[in-house]
Amino acid sequence: MKKDFDDGINNKVYEFRVLARLSQQELADQIGVSKQTIFVMEKGNYVPSLLLAFRIATYFNVEITEIFTYELGGTTNEN
């Protein structure tokens, strides 16, 4: 029997990008992805790989959990 999980990853990429005064294209160029990847990630329609998530956190010089949070069944679990 397959178990269904109602979980996801939330992100604050938009907030960090705007605070850094970067366009989607500028951030994309800095981390090696397309502008479309940034766009869909900010809309919550794309969950990045762990490598990309670390690359984004490293670019902004913050811990990965400051940008990405795991949500399990409507409750946020940041640890």
Could you name the CATH class? Mainly Alpha
Shape: globular
Query: In CATH, what is the homologous superfamily?
Result: lambda repressor-like DNA-binding domains
Largest sheet: 3 strands, antiparallel
Domain count:
1
Average pLDDT, all residues? 90
Q: Give the strand content.
A: 15-25%
SSE order, one letter for each helix or strand: EHHHHHEE
Q: Can you list the strand order of the major beta sheet?
A: 1-2-3
Structural description of this entry:
- The protein is an alpha+beta fold and 79 residues long.
- 47% of the residues lie in helices and 16% in strands.
- The protein is built from 5 helices and 3 strands, in the order E-H-H-H-H-H-E-E.
- It has helices spanning 13-19, 24-31, 35-42, 50-59, 64-67, and strands spanning 7-11, 68-72, 75-77.
- Strands 1-2-3 form a 3-stranded antiparallel β-sheet.
- Strand 2 (68-72) and strand 3 (75-77) form a beta hairpin.
- The longest helix is centred in the last third of the chain and has 10 residues, at 50-59.
- It is globular and about 40 Å long.
- The mean pLDDT is 90.
Briefly, what is this?
It comes from Isobaculum melis. This protein is of the alpha+beta class.
Set down the secondary structure blueprint.
Elements: E1 7-11, H1 13-19, H2 24-31, H3 35-42, H4 50-59, H5 64-67, E2 68-72, E3 75-77
Antiparallel strand pairs: 1-2, 2-3
Helix pairs in contact: 2-3
